[in-house]
Design a protein that fits this description.
The chain is of the alpha/beta class and about 350 residues long. The chain has 2 domains: about 120 residues, 3-Layer(aba) Sandwich (Rossmann fold), CATH 3.40.50; about 160 residues, Dihydrodipicolinate Reductase, domain 2 (2-Layer Sandwich). The radius of gyration is 19 Å and the shape is globular.
Length: about 350
């Protein structure tokens, strides 16, 4: 049985990793770290894991031996201090923060506001979006798991950009549930503030903007320019990104449908649908994409659960590829539906 560790096991992403991995047929959770809960039973902190995860939190991942792969589910700036030691020991790593998503050091430091201390690994990390970089992920020992917004936007936009049917500038209106803001509360995520409201934030400054531009450039050969407007909505899970393009020439809806079906017809977790819905994917690793032709414009939609396909589920999908397991292992579950 493959032994897995999770650095940062108390947050939403770390606990979601544990929820998925605890019933995975081919791996066992051997370690979960938490500085504030070291020595405490995992199920005491996360009661929903009672009967599934029977270990204590440790303070350091190095307290556990013989690990095969470690997920790093920590705030930005932490993984770059953890990953080098893991790789030196021959342990594969998947980082769920933004530390290894952008190969350009200058771009990283501009958007994240601090110096990157592991430049060599930054430049060789594989971007963990299996639908576009599957072969690279299979051979990787370090994967940068995509951001939640970035996942929904890239899945929606990349096929159109690759087709050459649309101009490269795109306006993205993206709405996310409050779990995307993390476990630590803030005035903006307080129920009294965000309940019965929609709150734009980080307009023009969100860190997923350069991530999307760089990933799509690699896949589609397109110099995509994103005007990104993220908004917080009063639901717990889910993202819906609406992406607005100008067409280069007259096309039919059937042509656009063909572009998406050609890209995603063989994918287990990405579905081209008529009417995308957050509810349809919540709790699952599935994503929905859709499109609408409106005159000389086209709107592309991408929908994911921000904690699953937008974070932990996608990381497990990458893990499966890295370990030569069935790609969907541990992930074959539908959305909640209602």
């Amino acid at each position: 049985m493959t032994r897995i560790g999770i650095i940062g096991g108390t947050g939403y992403t770390g606990s979601e990793l544990a929820r998925i991995l605890c019933t995975h047929p081919d791996v066992e959770i051997a370690a979960m770290t938490s500085r504030q809960n070291a020595g405490v039973r995992v199920a005491e902190v996360h009661p929903f894991l009672s009967g599934y995860v029977d270990i204590d939190f440790t303070e350091r991942i190095s307290d556990t031996k013989d690990l095969d792969l470690v997920f790093v589910a920590t705030p930005h700036g932490v993984a770059m201090n953890e990953v080098p030691a893991l790789l030196d020991q021959g342990i594969k790593a998947i980082d769920l923060s933004g530390d290894y998503r952008m190969h350009d050091v200058a771009v990283y430091e501009k958007w994240y506001g601090h110096t990157h201390t592991d430049v060599d690994n930054l430049q060789r990390a594989v971007y963990g979006l299996p639908e576009f970089f599957r072969d690279e992920i299979r051979g990787a020992d370090l994967v940068a798991n995509p951001g939640c917004y970035a996942t929904s936007i890239i899945l929606a936009c990349a096929p159109l950009l690759k087709s050459g049917l649309v101009e490269e500038d795109v306006i993205v209106d993206a709405k996310s549930g409050t779990s995307g803001a993390g476990m630590v509360p803030s005035p903006r995520t307080h129920h009294s503030t965000c309940g019965e409201s929609i709150i734009p934030y980080s307009v023009g400054t969100h860190r997923h903007t350069p991530e999307v531009e760089m990933a799509v450039d690699r896949f589609a050969g397109s110099h995509m320019k994103v005007t990104f407007v993220p908004q917080l909505i009063p639901i717990v899970r889910g993202i819906l990104s609406s992406c607005y393009f100008d067409l280069k020439r007259g096309v039919t809806q059937e042509e656009i449908d063909g572009v998406y079906r050609s890209q995603y017809s063989g994918e287990r977790f990405v579905h081209y649908v008529k009417e995308p819905s957050i509810r349809a994917v919540v709790g699952s690793n599935h994503a929905q994409v859709s499109s609408r032709l409106i005159g000389d414009k086209v709107v592309a939609f991408g929908v994911v659960d921000n904690l699953v396909k937008g974070a932990a589920g996608q990381a497990v999908q990458c893990m499966n590829l890295m370990l030569n397991l069935k790609e969907s292992a541990g992930l074959d579950m539908p959305g909640l539906g209602v």
